[in-house]
């Protein structure tokens, strides 16, 4: 193995990916599987999750699918227990699961109401998934990692955890909801809190903050979004892979409590 391969080595590491049925989570599962790690593919969308795990297995990779509701302490506990029973350890948690509205204009959006009329129920549900869900996953992973005396966590935040959304790009009637900014900022806070709480315990935790990933958005939105980045385009989901492998592996061995921003320069100006 070359020195570079050694630094990034994730072979046979047991890696839990939450939100694994989603746009970013599914891509992360695939690239992690390609490193030779054992990927625990977990999401609330059971069918998609099991199908992805089966697809990876059929390709000769090491993977297993798990259904989980991250808002339930019992469900998260059950997930991590199953992983540890089956693979003996949990080396890395990659937490992607979240409510992240995709602005599908063919569907009515519950958050189409303006901020002053934003429904309390949606706010509470989103904080439950985006913040409490992250708290529960980190808490459960930490229990195992403390026993192992080592572990790595990567929590996916967003540029909107760092700066406010520019609502002018979201076109008539649609806007990035308040819970998104608040919960993504909370992920950065959780990252710093947990990093410092486990000082000296050999548990590293960092955030990864992507900018907008192209996903069949409308042309006008892509134009507007792109003009606000330095690189003048949205990201391809594959452009997060390098950052993920860096944060999950020993390549980032002297990083904890940090936020790696992959945003084409959005937050630079
Ligand atoms: N797509 C982007 O442009 C973008 C940009 C910046 C940050 N992010 C962040 O990246 C992460 C992944 O985003 P994505 O675009 O893949 O979103 P996505 O909606 O495609 O995936 C999110 C996944 O989380 C799962 N999930 C939701 N609630 C859950 C629950 N209670 N229990 C278990 N799983 C649950 C969903 O089923 C879904 O598969 C999110 O944290 C998002 O905020 C996305």
Biggest pleated sheet: 7 strands, parallel
Small molecules (ligands, ions, cofactors) in the structure: nicotinamide-adenine-dinucleotide
The CATH homology group name = NAD(P)-binding Rossmann-like Domain
* Beta-strand percentage range: 5-15%
Task: Determine the number of helices (DSSP H or I, runs of at least 4 residues).
Answer: 8
Molecular shape? globular
Multimer state: single chain
Counting DSSP E segments of at least 2 residues, the number of strands comes to: 7
Task: Identify the CATH architecture.
Answer: 3-Layer(aba) Sandwich
> Structural class per helix/strand content?
alpha/beta
> Helicity range of the residues?
40-55%
What is the residue-averaged pLDDT?
95
Poorly predicted runs of 5 or more residues: none
- The gyration radius over C-alpha positions equals 18 Å
**Secondary-structure element string:** HEHEHEHEHEHEHHE
Distance between the termini: 41 Å
CATH first level: Alpha Beta
In what order do the strands lie side by side in the largest sheet? Answer: 3-2-1-4-5-6-7
How many domains is the backbone divided into?
Answer: 1
Q: Which fold name is given in CATH as the topology?
A: Rossmann fold
